[in-house]
């Protein structure tokens, strides 16, 4: 198995450095500084290079790396010293410009480090690190530049992490600031992920990505809103788009001209229906469908669809047991009392 010459050189130097670690902490710090070593093809290349003789006794180190690679969950992947995080930190510390950061993200020493577990953790961090909207958006765009420049971006694990990650990242951003570009990015990624899941015929994957798409289109229009404050919250959200995009960046009004609530919720409802068709008895899907349908009905004055009514009734039944999520059950009971 061959790797690009530059990757071979960097991977071998990184592996040799890991093998000289004097402690477990040092071993892990050096390993996660070079996530290229966690790629399955790089591990196989190292196996071939070392051969069965292994005169320098390096195979045990490779076995540890492979165990970490195959057993670690993305949520447990330690960030901070990898090539993408270093670009983020250098930009935020004023060491490089945005243009330089985007160029650096597309270079081979970064793109060769892209692999599914690392990518999943990076995207997960964008909604978990307590960052404000603008730094989260900037970090995500730099990460997107690295992934788009990666020649392996459509390999299975990377593709899944990329499509789901972009959908969730843009959802997080849209909850704070309306931006058409982010909605389009998230929807394009999510629909590609849904097409993959449907091609695989996997109901759980279909439910998962449909759920994310429904949230992408619906949550920015319904979260933390009620019938009493709906229009006030809607106007305030759109003003944030004008402030962050128009006043701060000089963008035209089209940049934050998001769809009308009625249109966005109708799209969200379609994805909830896809999720329900895949997993008909999932209460988290039923509540999403029911709340989106009830909100849309309230905005348009239209009648509740039969599938919305059945979602509420089935949700009440499914959450009636002794070991249920009481908050979820209460949401169903409120809808049943107010809407049916």
- Main beta-sheet annotation: none
How many strands in all?
0
| Radius of gyration based on Cα positions | 23 Å
The end-to-end distance, rounded to whole angstroms, is: 63 Å
Query: How would you classify the helix and strand content by structural class?
Result: mainly alpha
Figure out the total of helices. Answer: 17
Q: Helix fraction?
A: over 70%
Strand proportion, as a percent range, falls in: under 5%
Mean pLDDT: 94
* Total tally of structural domains: 4
Note poorly predicted spans: none
Q: What oligomeric state best describes the polypeptide chains here? A: single chain
Element-level helix/strand string: HHHHHHHHHHHHHHHHH
What sort of overall outline do the alpha carbons produce when their principal axes are compared? Answer: globular
Structural summary, described in words:
By secondary structure, the protein is mainly α. The chain has 4 domains: 5-71, no CATH class; 79-153, no CATH class; 160-267; 280-340. Helices cover 71% and strands 0% of the residues. The protein has helices at residues 5-19, 24-33, 40-50, 59-71, 83-92, 98-105, 108-111, 116-126, 133-148, 156-174, 180-200, 203-222, 230-249, 261-278, 283-300, 306-318, 326-339. The longest helix has 21 residues, at 180-200. The radius of gyration is 23 Å and the shape is globular. It starts with a helix and ends with a helix. The mean pLDDT is 94.
């Amino acid at each position: 198995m061959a790797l690009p010459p530059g990757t071979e050189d960097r991977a071998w130097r990184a592996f040799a450095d890991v093998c000289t670690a004097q402690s477990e902490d040092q071993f892990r710090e050096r390993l996660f500084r070079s996530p290229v070593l966690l790629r399955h093809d790089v591990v196989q290349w190292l196996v071939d290079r070392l051969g069965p003789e292994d005169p320098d006794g390096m195979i045990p180190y490779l076995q540890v790396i492979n165990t970490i690679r195959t057993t670690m969950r993305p949520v447990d992947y330690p960030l901070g010293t990898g090539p993408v995080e270093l670009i983020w930190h250098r930009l935020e510390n004023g060491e490089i410009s945005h243009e330089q950061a985007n160029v650096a993200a597309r270079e081979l020493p970064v793109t060769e480090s892209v692999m599914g577990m690392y990518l999943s953790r990076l995207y997960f961090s964008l909604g978990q690190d307590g960052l404000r909207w603008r730094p989260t958006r900037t970090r995500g765009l730099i990460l997107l530049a690295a992934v788009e420049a990666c020649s392996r971006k459509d390999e299975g694990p990377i593709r899944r992490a990329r499509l789901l990650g972009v959908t969730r990242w843009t959802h997080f951003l849209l909850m704070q600031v309306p931006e058409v570009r982010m909605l389009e990015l998230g929807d394009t990624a999510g629909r590609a992920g849904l097409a993959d899941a449907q091609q695989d015929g996997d109901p759980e994957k279909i439910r998962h990505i449909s759920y994310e798409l429904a949230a992408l289109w619906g949550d920015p229009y319904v979260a933390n809103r009620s019938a009493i404050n709906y229009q006030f919250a809607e106007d305030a959200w759109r003003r944030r788009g004008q402030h962050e995009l128009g006043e701060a960046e000089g963008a035209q009004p089209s940049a934050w001209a998001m769809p009308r609530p009625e249109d966005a919720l109708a799209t969200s409802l379609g994805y909830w229906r896809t999720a329900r068709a895949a997993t008909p008895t999932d209460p988290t899907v039923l509540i999403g469908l029911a709340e989106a349908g009830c909100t849309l009905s309230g905005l348009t004055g239209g009648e509740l669809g039969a599938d919305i009514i059945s979602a509420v009734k089935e949700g009440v039944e499914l959450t009636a047991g002794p070991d249920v999520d009481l908050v979820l059950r209460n949401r169903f009971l409120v809808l049943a009392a107010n809407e049916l």
